[in-house]
Design goal:
By secondary structure, this protein is of the alpha/beta class. The protein is built from ten helices and ten strands. The strands form two sheets. An eight-stranded mixed beta sheet has the order 5-4-1-6-7-9-8-10, with helices on both faces. It has a two-stranded antiparallel sheet with strand order 2-3. Helix 7 (about 150-155) runs parallel beside helix 8 (about 175-190). The radius of gyration is 17 Å and the shape is globular. The two termini are about 25 Å apart.
Length: about 280
C-alpha cells in the first residue's frame, strides 16, 4: 500500500492519530509555559477529500466523514474537540455540503499554538514539502524544513523551551522502517527524556511491532491501537500509537473515547498502559 498521507486522509488511522494529537496539544498548552512542537514526517498539511489521492481511495468515508455525521449528544469530550478542530479547518475554505477539507497534523498543531510557542514541521518528500511550504507561506509561527525527520531529532532536541511534543509519523515505505524508527527514538530520548512523544505505526508484522514496543521498556508509555473489523484487500487493517510521557488526564480521556469510537469506525480500539493490559477489544 502507499503510505503517503494524502491517500489515507481522514481514514480510521487518521482519526485515532489526530484525536491523540489534539488532546495532547490541549493538555500541554494548558500550562503557562512555552511549548516546542516537532512534526518529523508532516505530509502536505491539508487535504481535499473531493480531489486527488483522497478522492481515489475514499477512505475518509468510513472515517472522519462518518464521525462528522454523528450526533454530539453523548459523544466523549475529546472526540467533540477533535471534530471541532477538523470543522474549523474546513470552514477556512467556505461553507459547502459536508466535510471537504481535512487538516493534516501540521494544521492541527498550528491551530493549537499560543504566542511564544514554536513549531518545526519536517517533510522529506519534495512534492509534499512544497505543498507544506505553500500551506504556511508567510506564517512566522511555523518553520517548514524539507529534511529527514530522523535527522531533525538529532538537530533540534533538546529544545530550549525544555517542554516539547514530538510527533513521529513515518511513511513506512521501507522494510527496515521499524529499525530506523527505534534508533531515532532511542537517540531522541537520550537527548530529551522528559519530552512527550507520539509515534504512529502500522500493524502488519506483529513480530516487528512487538520488537519495536520492547524498545519502549523503561519509559512511561501508553499504547493505543485500532483494528478494523472488515479489511478491504490491500488496505491497512490495524495501526497503533505509542505515547511516551503522556500528560496528566490524557489516559482517562482516551479510555473514554476509544470504546465510543468502536461502533462508528467498525473497529476494535483499546489502550495499554505499559505492557500489562490485554489487546484492544470492542
Amino acid at each position: 500500500m502507499n503510505y503517503r498521507h494524502g491517500y489515507h486522509a481522514g481514514n480510521y488511522a487518521d482519526v485515532l492519530k489526530h484525536l491523540v494529537l489534539v488532546e495532547l496539544l490541549r493538555l500541554l498548552t494548558a500550562k503557562d509555559k512555552k511549548l516546542f512542537v516537532l512534526d518529523t514526517h508532516s505530509g502536505a498539511g491539508g487535504y481535499d477529500l473531493a480531489a486527488g489521492p483522497a478522492m481515489r481511495t475514499r477512505e475518509a468515508e468510513a472515517g472522519i466523514r462518518r464521525l462528522m455525521a454523528m450526533p454530539r449528544a453523548g459523544m466523549p469530550a475529546a472526540v467533540v474537540r477533535y471534530l471541532a478542530a477538523v470543522a474549523a479547518y474546513d470552514r477556512k475554505f467556505g461553507r459547502g455540503e459536508g466535510l471537504r477539507h481535512y487538516p493534516g497534523s501540521p494544521r492541527l498543531v498550528r491551530a493549537a499554538l499560543r504566542p511564544g510557542d514554536r513549531f518545526v514541521a519536517c517533510e522529506l518528500h519534495p512534492q509534499e514539502a512544497l505543498s507544506l511550504k505553500r500551506e504556511f507561506a508567510g506564517d512566522r509561527a511555523v518553520e517548514v524544513r524539507q529534511a529527514d525527520g530522523y535527522h531533525a531529532l538529532k538537530a533540534l532536541l533538546p529544545p530550549v523551551e525544555r517542554r516539547g511534543l514530538v510527533m513521529i509519523d513515518p511513511p513506512f515505505e521501507k522494510t527496515d522502517e521499524f529499525e530506523t524508527l527505534s534508533r531515532g527514538l532511542k537517540h531522541a530520548l537520550r537527548r530529551f527524556a522528559t519530552g512527550c512523544y507520539a509515534i504512529w505505526y502500522p500493524i502488519k508484522d506483529e513480530e516487528a511491532v512487538a520488537a519495536f514496543e520492547e524498545t519502549l521498556a523503561g519509559f512511561k508509555v501508553l499504547i493505543l491501537e485500532a483494528r478494523v473489523n472488515v479489511v478491504a484487500e490491500g488496505k491497512l487493517g490495524a495501526c497503533g500509537i505509542a505515547v511516551i510521557n503522556p500528560p496528566w488526564t490524557f489516559q482517562e480521556a482516551m479510555a473514554e473515547s476509544l470504546p465510543w469510537l468502536a461502533a462508528p469506525l467498525d473497529a476494535r480500539l483499546g489502550l495499554r498502559s505499559g505492557f500489562s493490559v490485554s489487546s484492544p477489544t470492542a
